[in-house]
Design a protein that fits this description.
277 residues; 58% helix; globular
Length: 277
């Protein structure tokens, strides 16, 4: 019988007295102590972990999106492509997480739903900031955060800034003619399809080799919205599977509200121009 393997013999650090450990670096004590079920229901921990991990991924998505927007305003836009690709993969990860939550049946959910009170994913400030940053802006969506001046101030400040797509259009306008009203639009409103903007993007798509960076940027934005749409669709499916057509805990129409959100286009011109190519 061979002796049990001892990693220390291969140089692995085994003593962390006075040294930073894995748990220390990641702050795992705080992270793993942040789950506080309010019932004895077995599935409530799944529900909490699902949403907490989603918020962590959203935090990373915001980190990448803010950096991508700043990069688009700089001299070299190519580093933004990797950032946008990473956000797409984050939403792919978030999409896969619905598969875990779907293991919870309607019977499971009813054992703890009342403990949620009026809390709802509809109230996620980070999700709202992602939407605002991408250009889907609605001042009414700031109201659920009125009790938190810090969150409300962050969202209101975001609405005053150019969206990621606004920055893409400003970059496009440096090379191709873009209608002035599209560049000076009311930033508190969502993007709407614009024939002139579509014509500008179409010029890029008809000659990719000439406008390669802009062409690549456009496709990275389409990729991002593609993954974002899939996440939204699976959100609808998961909610309908668990609560049917009941109203959401936050007072929304539940599935009906989520289905309405499926109709939202973040970068409408990049989708509409495809019909014209």
């Amino acid at each position: 019988m061979t002796d049990a393997y001892d990693p220390a013999k291969d140089g692995a650090q085994m003593s962390f007295d006075g040294r930073m450990s894995y748990t220390d670096y990641l702050g795992l004590d705080a992270v793993l102590d942040a789950q506080h079920p309010l019932s004895s229901a077995h599935d409530e921990l799944l529900f909490i972990v699902q949403h907490q991990t989603s918020e962590l991924w959203m935090r990373l998505a915001l980190h990448e999106l803010h950096a991508a927007r700043a990069t688009l305003s700089g001299a070299e836009i190519r580093p933004a492509f990797k950032m946008l690709a990473r956000v797409s993969r984050i939403f792919e990860q978030l999409n896969s997480a619905w598969d875990v939550l779907r293991t919870m049946t309607p019977s499971d959910y009813t054992t703890f739903r009342e403990t949620l009170g009026q809390s709802s994913g509809f109230q996620s400030a980070q999700y709202r900031e992602i939407e605002f940053l991408l250009g889907n802006r609605n001042p009414a969506m700031v109201k659920p955060h009125a009790h938190r001046p810090d969150l409300m101030g962050r969202l209101e400040a975001e609405m005053e800034k150019p969206s990621l797509y606004d920055c893409a259009l400003m970059r496009l306008a440096q090379v191709v003619a873009v209608p002035e009203d599209a560049l000076s639009r009311d930033r508190t409103k969502p993007h709407q399809p614009d024939e002139g903007v579509q014509a500008a993007w179409a010029e890029v798509y008809r000659d990719p080799s000439r406008y390669w960076d802009l062409y690549e940027l456009a496709e990275k934005l389409v990729d991002l919205e593609d993954y974002f749409r899939r996440w939204r669709f699976n959100h609808v499916t998961t909610v309908e599977r668990v609560i049917g057509l009941k109203r959401g805990t936050g007072g929304t129409g539940g599935v009906s509200y989520l289905k309405r959100m499926l109709e939202v286009e973040l970068f409408p011109d990049l989708w509409h121009l495809r019909t014209k190519l």
